[in-house]
């Protein structure tokens, strides 16, 4: 049954000249049928450079929006329209305008986990892998960083600039506490703990390595360790294991599961590809402005 | 005990009056950096108790740590330091240290420091505790010399900076908790310097121990002067020891690098027993603190004051090539390491505590700043990571220099009347050569240093610390003798810091980082700092 639907998706994909992009946090079946699996930065680059007419984005809403911003002429499909990002929802365009009036000298950098409307209000966009680079590339001394306060803290540790954080955070990563880390460390004192910068500051400070999913992947590949404790969304264990069959991976905490990332099923991909919906389209006025912020990021990194 | 501590070390009858904006005490990396920064806006007077290049910085063999792009990030440097510091670091200050490290390196380069390079750029070394190569060096192990040489040149060329050498900082003058000046003394003359700000960069107090890798004159003079003036000190019990320094009555503590053990060096007690095998499965390659404590225990249990490092099973050619400095240094003192065991002893290396400051070197006294080893910014936590101390001197030296200059231009600095009233009468005990009995004095000083090494060393316990405190307060702390001799003052400062450090070690009833209590071998669940000022020692929970 599963293999049949996979075959059908493959066939449809050719018919519609579509490319399937899947985030590292997607369920295993979705990762298996995707043309590219990666973090939001890799996928946004793939979306920009793809020759296909249709992009099926297996991720959450803001990612599909970003793909549409980068390729306005293409059809961008998000197989499950309600797959949102609670972090992105912590801030609206109006909030950015308001915080700007309080810090008129500061630049605004938004994490890619934000709506197109928010991106349109910002000077530059970034992902966890290039946040520091982007912030350092701006001439401003002060930088308002939205919406993730934990990533803002991570950036502030790596730059001389004054970072003004927004109050949002990723519920999934924020659930992991320092006590969780201590417990694991006591059980496995010699196993490196690798965490995402969306984790709480104290977790980030005490982990052995901090980085986005691509950085974690690179660390694992190069490392001589055989076992790793992974502090990011559980979906990441799959690509890690796939690319490093000789190594072992453990999840830092069972709390590391993002329900939004698990919403898309093979059936939904099949149907959305067949009907070419639901499509995600960013209004041209907003898309143009947001594109500037996204391009600023692509330029820097 | 502390309430009877005199406010001044010595009140002179006569002092030459002079004026400047900022006085900087100390000619090591922190003082030179702060002076250069002050000199851009204000008149600065740099006071050194020795002559160039004598300072602890000069002897730094390691290097200076900085996370430079593109292969390293301040975050990684931050994490390594935090881990080494047993998660006891002041994170706000540590963030500044690691994120401003690259610009501190730029400052040094602009001021003529030539870091070693290879074809990929800076030649970066790796040291214990750093997860990556991030140590910049000058001429291999000559980093300290290279830094002092370059910065000294800049300081001497600066029209705004006046340098006085062989001059002792006796005391800091204050009025209503504002700095008003300092009392200095050169060979024969006292000076009453009117100034608005003082930057203490006089280093630590490793010299209070008989076994130390610091020069003998490292007696914490600036820290003691700040304490007498009312400043708060903290973390004085955290003293970092190097497990194996060369032990020779005439050789000041020279480090025998841990790499010697890495190459197969074996530790033996005087009866020739390889004692590490009974202590840890990894023997000589056990973690540094385990090795250091085992040596300390071995020494405490015997009549001998050292143990031996045996490399006689290694070929002479190999030793000469692999450890040229160590080989020639030991040979200079009559030990051919290819034939004889090397006498080694754990030695005080770095004092983590000092004058409490904020991120700009500001202390609890208005106009008083502290930087470098003299300061306690909290960046090292409970154990200092290699090559972070030179960095601390530059990063916070730059910040304190700017802040002190700003303070002088501000309204809050004390202006008007001075506070020092010169002594009206000749002090009965002073100035009489007969009262300064040099051999007796020397003996007393050696005695205190030995007591510190024994009771305030690597392994501490309540009984020993109480014993030390009793001896310090009964016999030594405030010698009635009031002499204008700088050696006497150094001794007084040494006594004060020994007392405060032992007291802090006594009240810290836990083991954490470099502070190990055999009667409390585990860390406390609460993180506490012990803060000392003239009122006593207070517990501050963080």
Describe the structure.
The complex is a heterodimer of chains A (301) and B (542). With 301 residues, chain A is an alpha/beta fold. Chain A folds into 3 domains: 2-83 and 261-281, 3-Layer(aba) Sandwich (Rossmann fold), CATH 3.40.50.10800; 88-169 and 287-300, NadA-like (Rossmann fold, 3-Layer(aba) Sandwich), CATH 3.40.50.10800; 172-258, Rossmann fold (3-Layer(aba) Sandwich). Chain A has 15 helices and 12 strands. Chain A has a 4-stranded parallel sheet with strand order 2-1-3-4, sandwiched between helices. In chain A, strands 6-5-7-8 form a 4-stranded parallel sheet, with helices on both faces. In chain A, strands 10-9-11-12 form a 4-stranded parallel sheet, covered by helices on one side. In chain A, strand 11, helix 13 (237-243) and strand 12 (248-251) form a beta-alpha-beta unit. In chain A, helix 1 (2-16) packs parallel to helix 14, helix 3 packs parallel to helix 4 (61-70) and helix 4 crosses helix 15. The longest helix of chain A is centred in the last third of the chain and has 17 residues, at 284-300. The radius of gyration of chain A is 19 Å and the shape is globular. The model of chain A has no long low-confidence stretch (mean pLDDT 94). Chain B has 542 residues and is of the alpha/beta class. Among the domains of chain B are: 243-345, Succinate dehydrogenase/fumarate reductase flavoprotein, catalytic domain (Flavocytochrome C3, Chain A, domain 1, Alpha-Beta Complex), CATH 3.90.700.10; 438-541, Fumarate reductase/succinate dehydrogenase flavoprotein-like, C-terminal domain (Methane Monooxygenase Hydroxylase, Chain G, domain 1, Up-down Bundle), CATH 1.20.58.100. In chain B, 32% of the residues lie in helices and 19% in strands. Mean pLDDT of chain B is 90; it is low at 428-434. At the A-B interface, helix 8 of A face helix 2 and helix 3 of B.
């Amino acid at each position: 049954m599963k293999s049949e639907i996979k075959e059908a998706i493959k066939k449809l994909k050719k018919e519609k000249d579509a490319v399937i992009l899947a985030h590292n946090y997607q369920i295993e079946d979705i990762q298996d049928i995707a043309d590219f699996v990666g973090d939001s930065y890799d996928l946004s680059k793939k979306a920009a450079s793809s020759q296909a007419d249709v992009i099926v984005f297996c991720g959450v809403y803001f990612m599909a929006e970003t793909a549409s911003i980068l390729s306005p002429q293409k059809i961008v499909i998000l197989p499950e329209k309600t797959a949102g990002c609670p972090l992105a929802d912590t801030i609206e365009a109006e909030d950015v305008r308001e915080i700007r009036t309080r810090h008129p000298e500061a630049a605004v950098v938004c994490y890619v986990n934000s709506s197109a409307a928010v991106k349109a209000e910002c000077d530059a966009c970034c992902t966890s892998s290039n946040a520091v680079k982007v912030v350092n590339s701006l001439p401003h001394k002060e930088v308002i960083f939205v919406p993730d306060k934990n990533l803002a803290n991570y950036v502030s540790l790596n730059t001389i600039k004054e970072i003004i954080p927004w109050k949002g955070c990723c519920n999934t990563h924020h659930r992991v506490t320092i006590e969780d880390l201590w417990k694991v460390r006591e059980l496995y004192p010699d196993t490196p703990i690798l965490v995402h910068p969306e984790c709480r500051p104290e977790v980030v400070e005490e982990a052995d390595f901090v980085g986005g999913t691509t950085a974690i992947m690179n660390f694992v590949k190069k490392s001589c360790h055989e076992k790793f404790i992974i502090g990011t969304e559980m979906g990441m264990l799959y690509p890690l294991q796939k690319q490093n069959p000789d190594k072992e991976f453990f999840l830092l905490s069972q709390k590391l599961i993002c329900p939004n990332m698990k919403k898309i099923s093979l059936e939904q991909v099949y149907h959305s590809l067949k009907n070419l919906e639901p499509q995600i389209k960013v209004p041209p006025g907003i898309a143009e402005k947001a594109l500037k912020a996204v391009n600023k990021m692509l330029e820097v990194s | 005990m502390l309430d009877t501590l005199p406010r001044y070390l010595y009140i002179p009858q006569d002092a030459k009056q002079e004026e400047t904006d900022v006085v900087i005490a100390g000619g090591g990396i922190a003082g030179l950096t702060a002076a250069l920064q002050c000199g851009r806006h204000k008149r600065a007077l740099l006071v050194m108790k020795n002559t160039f290049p004598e300072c602890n910085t000069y002897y730094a063999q390691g290097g200076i740590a900085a996370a430079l792009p593109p292969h390293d990030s301040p975050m990684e440097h931050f994490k390594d330091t935090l881990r080494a510091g047993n998660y006891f670091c002041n994170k706000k200050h540590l963030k500044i240290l690691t994120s401003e490290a690259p610009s501190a390196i730029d400052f040094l380069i602009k001021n003529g420091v030539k870091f070693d390079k290879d074809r990929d750029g800076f030649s970066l070394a790796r040291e214990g505790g750093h997860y990556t190569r991030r140590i910049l060096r000058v001429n291999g192990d000559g980093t300290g010399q290279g830094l002092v040489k370059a910065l000294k040149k800049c300081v001497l060329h600066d029209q705004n900076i006046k340098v006085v050498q062989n001059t002792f900082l006796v005391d800091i003058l204050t009025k209503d908790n504002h700095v008003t000046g300092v009392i200095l003394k050169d060979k024969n003359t006292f000076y009453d310097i009117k100034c608005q700000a003082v930057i203490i960069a006089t280093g630590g107090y490793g010299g209070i121990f008989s076994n130390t890798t610091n020069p003998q004159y490292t007696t914490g003079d600036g820290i003691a002067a700040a304490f007498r003036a009312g400043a708060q000190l903290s973390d004085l019990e955290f003293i970092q020891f190097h497990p194996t320094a060369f032990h020779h009555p005439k050789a000041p503590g020279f480090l025998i690098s841990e790499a010697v053990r890495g190459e197969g060096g074996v530790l033996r007690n005087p009866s020739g027993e390889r004692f590490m095998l009974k202590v840890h499965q990894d023997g000589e390659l056990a973690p540094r603190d385990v090795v250091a404590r085992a040596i300390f225990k071995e020494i405490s249990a015997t009549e001998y004051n050292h143990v031996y490092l045996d490399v006689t099973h290694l070929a002479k050619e190999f030793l000469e090539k692999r450890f040229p400095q160590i080989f020639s240094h030991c040979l200079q003192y009559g030990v051919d390491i290819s034939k004889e065991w090397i006498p080694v002893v754990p030695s005080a290396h770095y004092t983590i505590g000092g004058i409490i400051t904020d991120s700009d070197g500001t202390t609890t006294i208005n106009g008083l700043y502290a930087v470098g080893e003299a300061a306690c910014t909290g960046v090292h936590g409970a154990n200092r990571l290699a090559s972070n101390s030179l960095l601390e001197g530059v990063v916070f030296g730059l910040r304190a220099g700017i802040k002190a200059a700003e303070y002088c231009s501000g309204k809050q600095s004390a202006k008007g009347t001075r506070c020092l009233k010169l002594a009206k009468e000749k002090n009965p005990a002073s100035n009489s050569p007969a009262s300064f009995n040099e051999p007796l004095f020397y003996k007393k000083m050696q005695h205190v240093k030995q007591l510190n090494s024994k009771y305030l060393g690597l392994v501490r316990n309540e009984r020993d610390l109480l014993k030390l405190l009793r001896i310090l307060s009964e016999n030594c702390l405030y010698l009635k003798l009031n002499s204008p001799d700088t050696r006497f003052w150094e001794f007084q400062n040494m006594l004060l810091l020994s007392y405060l450090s032992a007291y802090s070690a006594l009240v810290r009833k836990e083991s954490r980082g470099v502070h190990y209590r055999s009667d409390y071998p585990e860390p406390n669940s609460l993180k506490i700092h012990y803060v000392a000022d003239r009122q006593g020692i207070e517990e501050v929970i963080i």
